[in-house]
Amino acid sequence: MCQIAINIPNEVLYDTRMNLEETSQFVRCAVALGYYTQSGVSIGYCAQIAGLSKEEFIKYLGLSVTGTLGILLKAKKLGILKKLHPLLLEMKQNGFYIDSALEAIVLEQAGEQ
Description:
64% of the residues lie in helices and 0% in strands. It is mainly alpha-helical.
């Protein structure tokens, strides 16, 4: 990975009340945001630039992530699916890993627990 140095006037740190570590993090996120929005660099690489996990960078972007179980739960709540539990069992039988604690929460929210 390459390193780039930039000069930031001390007055900027004073005005923003940021220390060097906060300023460094701010700049990393700003550069990552620029690469993501202007150059189409992937979320994964931009997260690395920002020094964040993918999930943290997605939150930084103001995006939300809905996983498979979240989509299925919404389908159940909208009446598209009548029962969620049989579908989850079939998914697990076909090799789809579902954390047992998460499954319990989803089934409870679906009214099937």
